[in-house]
Amino acid sequence: MNVTQLFLPGAHAAAATSSTTGGTGNEVIFWICAVIAVAGALGLVLSRRAVHSALWIAMTMISLAVLYVAQQGIFVGIVQVVVYTGAIMMLFLFVLMIVGVDASDSLVETIKGQRWIAIVGSLGLGGLLVFGVADAFVQPPVGLTAANAAHGSNPRGIAIELFSNWVLVFEVTSALLITSAVGAMVLAHRERIFPKLSQRLQSQARVQSGRANQLPVPGVYARHNAVDTPAIRPDGTLAPSSVPAALQARGISRGLDTGDIDEVASGMAGAPSVVARGTGIESTSELTDATDGNDGEVQS
Amino acid sequence: MTSNAYLVLAAILFTIGGAGVLLRRNAIVAFLSVELMLNASNLAFITAAHQWGTLTGQVVAFFVMVVAAAEVVVGLAIIVTVFRTRRSASVDESSLLRW
User: Fold this and answer.
1) Taking residues A91-106, what's their average pLDDT?
2) Around A134, how many Cα atoms within 13 Å sit in the side-chain half-sphere?
3) DSSP secondary-structure letter at A137?
4) A76, A156, A227, A285: which one has the fewest Cβ atoms less than 10 Å from its Cβ?
5) At what angle do helices A24-46 and B27-52 cross, to 10 degrees?
6) Backbone phi, psi, residue A73, to 5°
7) Is A83 exposed, middle or buried (0-12, 13-18, 19+ CB in 10 A)?
8) The whole model's pTM is what?
9) What does the DSSP assignment read for A234-298?
10) ipTM of the complex as predicted
């Protein structure tokens, strides 16, 4: 049973004669996809970071789509890929990016022993379910070849079923979708507390902040040239604002390596070192910029 | 091959999803586990459709997908709103109604 037989009405004569209830091909597909699906589900539960969980469950969903198609549910299988893996998982990833990728689980138990109770309870539920359904079907599956062929193809059969027997449920579904869309808009809406920053307001705030010009660029030295090295002001102090704030927050901003500079300076015959020049000037406080004039340490 | 193996797979996935809801504190991961449970039930529906040779199971699985989409939209909006006010996506943080 291949895809063209399910889609093309003319191919159903051939499809009807071929085996619909599986055979070794279906069994191989099942075992490959079942292992992938269970591995993805375990990865969802066990991985530390939420993004990894989302990617694991995407793997599970795609392998489930393969299993749907293997069971002659071609429409549902494709909807599984397009809607579930495509739309819903993308929505999850968007929200993950809003909430923060680094948000990891706390390992503190608010209810004492909840983890072990949950594991034991899950094993019990799994045992009950597995042993309950393990022998549910005693006869081989009928297969959907006849049902699919009755209306031409599988999507057509589902459409006729949907708009005849299930039309009331279908209409109620539209009400549900509209309600959820309105609800999401109401929940995600935020009242604007501050006025919207226009270009005029931004420029005014910039002038009032005390620094109308741009931030100083990081230092460029003879031996080191990177954004984590602060620039040296004319008076020999460091300009911390020349290092990006993200690097400072992580604590990987380098200090001024005076030995390095002196070594280079002494190599240049007779040239005064940068630091020695800096100490001679004392009244340069107006040269230091307003935002970080105090926290630049003077190298003596 | 009978369809029982599909049902057992659905039961295993459902169980893992339930364990994820109980074990994980991150609201989004707990929500993803609920999605896994819905997918497992969908697999059972489609297996039943294949077993009995009617399309009803597939139609029901389609409806489950629609309801899951609506649920995801509202649930994620709630998570974003809670995150905005409490700066946290952990289900332990939202405990103001706890007695």
Assistant:
1) 77
2) 7
3) -
4) A285
5) 160
6) -105, 70
7) middle
8) 0.71
9) TTS-EEGGGS-HHHHHTT------HHHHHHHHHHSTTPPPHHHHHHT----TTTS-TTTTTTSPP
10) 0.92
CB A158 within 8 A of CB A75: yes
What does each C-alpha distance from B41 to A82, A110, A143, A188, A249 come to in angstroms? 18, 30, 19, 30, 47
CA distance A102 to A172: 39
Confidence of residue A223 (pLDDT cuts 50, 70, 90): low
pLDDT, position B66: 93
pLDDT value at residue B35: 94
Per-residue pLDDT, averaged over A164-193, amounts to: 91
Taking the CA of residue A134 and the nearest CA in chain B, the distance in Å comes to: 6
At residue A276 the predicted structure's pLDDT band, cuts being 50, 70 and 90, is very low
d(CA A242, CA A245): 9
Mean pLDDT of A70-88: 92
User: Which residue in this structure is represented by tokens 């059969």?
Assistant: A157
Asked if B86 reaches chain A (Cβ–Cβ under 8 Å), the answer is: no
Of B25, B61, B77, the CB nearest to A76: B61
Within 3-32 of B, beta carbons closer than 8 Å to A belong to: 3-20, 22-26, 28-29, 31-32
